[in-house]
C-alpha cells in the first residue's frame, strides 16, 4: 500500500513544529500591553494632538460607499495632521473584522473608526483595542453601546421617515396612492423606517396620501426592477414610489425612465448622486436623499481624534468641533448624529461625486 | 512490468515525501522572515491572536484530511458550522442551559454528517455533488432556524473562557485541544490499520474492497466524524465571537480545503500526511496574518492565498507527472518497443 509509509519521524517533526509554535507564542508573555503615548491625560477642551494614528475599518473594502466615507475620514485626518490608514476584510461577514482589529491593536492605533458587520462579534476585539489604548468610534453601523466609545450615526430613523414622506408628498402634489420598494423583508433598518413612515403619514398634512403596499427587491437590481414593473401593473393609479435603498431606487428609476410612466409616476428614495444623476437630468426623479458618506467619515475621524486628544470623554452633553462641519453634541449612549439627510435635486446634484 | 504504473506510483511516493517537507520549510522561512521584516510579528500577542484565528480551520482540517485521503470531499463543513451556531443560539434563546446545548449541538453535527455519509457511502453518490447540495441545504436551514437575527447574550463566563489563554501565556487553551486532536488524528492515520485502509480507499475503492476493507462503513463514519467536529468548531466560533448567526463561517470550507491541499494531500486521494496539513494550516494563517500586520490590502491577501493554493495543487502533481512522463519516454525512445 503506497502512501501508508509513515514515518514516526515525520510525525515527531510535526509535533515538534507545533510545540515550537506554541512556545514561540508563549515566550515572554510579559511584554503585553504596549500602551501608546498618553492622550487621555491632555487637558479637556484643548486642541487635537498632532500625529494621531487613525485607522478606518469599513464593513468591507472596495465597497464604493465605504470608500467615500473613509476618504472623508482621510480628509479630516489630513486636516489635523494625523496618520491615516484604511484596512478591512474583502467580505462583509460577522467575524471578518476581528483579526483586523487585533492587528490595529498591536500596531498601537490611537483611533479606530469601525463600521461593524455585527453588533456583538467584534466586541471582544474592540475591548482589547481599548485596553491597548485606542479610542474606538463606530460609524454607519454600531456595536453594542458598551463596547465602543462613540457611535457616529448617519441619521435617525425619524429623520429618514420625515424626509422621505416630505419628498414624495412634494413630488405627487400631496395627494394619491404611494408604494414602498424596500430591500429585504427582514432588513431591520428598512422595516423600522417604513414603520416610522406610516406614523409620519398619519399627520394631517399627509391625510390624502395612501400607502398601498410594501414590496421587496431584496437589494437585487433585477428583482427591484421587476417589483417596480409589478407595482405599476397592480396599481394603475399609483402616483409615487418611495425606495429607501440605493439599489432599489436606482432600479426603479431605470424602469420608470424607459416606460410610459416616466414623468407621471413620481419616485424618491435614498440613493447616491452618481447612481441617480441621469434620472434627475432626464426628469424621471425630481429629488432624492442620502446622508453624505464623506461627511460621515469626516465626523467619525474628528470625534475619535477629540477623544484621543482628551478634549472629550464621550459623556452625554459634551460638545466638540468637527472641522468644516461645525459643532456637535454627544447625545445619550455616546451617539452623535450627523444630521438630516442631504436632499439632491437638479440644482445641486452637480456638486456631488459619490 | 508496466512503466506506467511504476512510474506513477514512484512519482507519488517521492512527491509525498518531499511536499510536506517543502511546506514545513516554507512555514519556518515565513516565520523567520516575518519576525525580521514585520514589526509586531514576533510578539506573544500576535501568536495569541493567530492561534485563535487558526482554531476553526485547523480543527475541521483534521477530519477533512482523512476524508480527502479516501478520495472524497466534504464541502458542507462550514454550513454545518453555521447551522450548529444557529441551533446553539436558538436553544439558548429558548432558555436551555449551555452544558446541555453543547452535547446536543455536537450530536446534531454528527447527524448532519451522517446524512452526507448516507448519500455518499450508502447510495454511492459522488461526495462533491452530495456535499455541494448539503452546503446549500444546511446553510438554508440555518437561516430557517435563526433568520437574520443574532443571539448574543451568552454569559461572559463562557465567551470569555472560550478565548482564555493558559495562565501566564498568550496561548489560548483551545490550541492544546487542537494539538491533542492533531496528535490523535495523526496516530490513527499513520500508525493504525484504519489509517492504512484510508489510503487504500483513496487509491482504489475496488482494490480496498477486495482487500477486505469495509469501504462504505468507514466512509460513513468519517462523514459523521467530520460533521461532529464541524459542529464543535461552530460552538467555539459562536462563543469566541459571542454571536450566534446563520452566516457564521460562510466560505470557511474553502479555507479548510485550501489548507489541506496546501499541506500536500492529493485532491484525488491516497496521498498526504497530517503533518503536512498542520503545516499547511499554519502556513496559510501565518502568512495571512503577517501580511495583514504589514498593512497589505485584503485583495492582495486573497491573491496570495489563491496563488499558494494553485501551487499546492499543481506543484506535487506536476512533479509526479513529469517524473512519470520521463520514465514513460525512455522505453518509447527505442523504435523497436511499442
TrEMBL record, chain A:
<dbReference type="InterPro" id="IPR050555">
    <property type="entry name" value="Bact_Solute-Bind_Prot2"/>
</dbReference>
<dbReference type="InterPro" id="IPR013459">
    <property type="entry name" value="RhaS"/>
</dbReference>
<dbReference type="Pfam" id="PF13407">
    <property type="entry name" value="Peripla_BP_4"/>
</dbReference>
<protein>
    <submittedName>
        <fullName>Monosaccharide ABC transporter substrate-binding protein (CUT2 family)</fullName>
    </submittedName>
</protein>
<dbReference type="GO" id="GO:0030246">
    <property type="term" value="F:carbohydrate binding"/>
</dbReference>
<dbReference type="InterPro" id="IPR028082">
    <property type="entry name" value="Peripla_BP_I"/>
</dbReference>
<feature type="domain" description="Periplasmic binding protein">
    <location>
        <begin position="54"/>
        <end position="310"/>
    </location>
</feature>
<keyword id="KW-0732">Signal</keyword>
<dbReference type="InterPro" id="IPR025997">
    <property type="entry name" value="SBP_2_dom"/>
</dbReference>
<dbReference type="GO" id="GO:0015762">
    <property type="term" value="P:rhamnose transmembrane transport"/>
</dbReference>
<dbReference type="GO" id="GO:0030288">
    <property type="term" value="C:outer membrane-bounded periplasmic space"/>
</dbReference>
<feature type="signal peptide">
    <location>
        <begin position="1"/>
        <end position="29"/>
    </location>
</feature>
Automatic annotation (TrEMBL), chain B:
<keyword id="KW-1133">Transmembrane helix</keyword>
<dbReference type="InterPro" id="IPR001851">
    <property type="entry name" value="ABC_transp_permease"/>
</dbReference>
<feature type="transmembrane region" description="Helical">
    <location>
        <begin position="220"/>
        <end position="239"/>
    </location>
</feature>
<dbReference type="GO" id="GO:0005886">
    <property type="term" value="C:plasma membrane"/>
</dbReference>
<keyword id="KW-0472">Membrane</keyword>
<dbReference type="GO" id="GO:0022857">
    <property type="term" value="F:transmembrane transporter activity"/>
</dbReference>
<keyword id="KW-0997">Cell inner membrane</keyword>
<keyword id="KW-0813">Transport</keyword>
<feature type="transmembrane region" description="Helical">
    <location>
        <begin position="274"/>
        <end position="291"/>
    </location>
</feature>
<feature type="transmembrane region" description="Helical">
    <location>
        <begin position="47"/>
        <end position="68"/>
    </location>
</feature>
<keyword id="KW-0812">Transmembrane</keyword>
<keyword id="KW-1003">Cell membrane</keyword>
<feature type="transmembrane region" description="Helical">
    <location>
        <begin position="251"/>
        <end position="269"/>
    </location>
</feature>
<feature type="transmembrane region" description="Helical">
    <location>
        <begin position="303"/>
        <end position="322"/>
    </location>
</feature>
<dbReference type="Pfam" id="PF02653">
    <property type="entry name" value="BPD_transp_2"/>
</dbReference>
<feature type="transmembrane region" description="Helical">
    <location>
        <begin position="173"/>
        <end position="199"/>
    </location>
</feature>
<feature type="transmembrane region" description="Helical">
    <location>
        <begin position="21"/>
        <end position="41"/>
    </location>
</feature>
<protein>
    <recommendedName>
        <fullName>Autoinducer 2 import system permease protein LsrD</fullName>
    </recommendedName>
</protein>
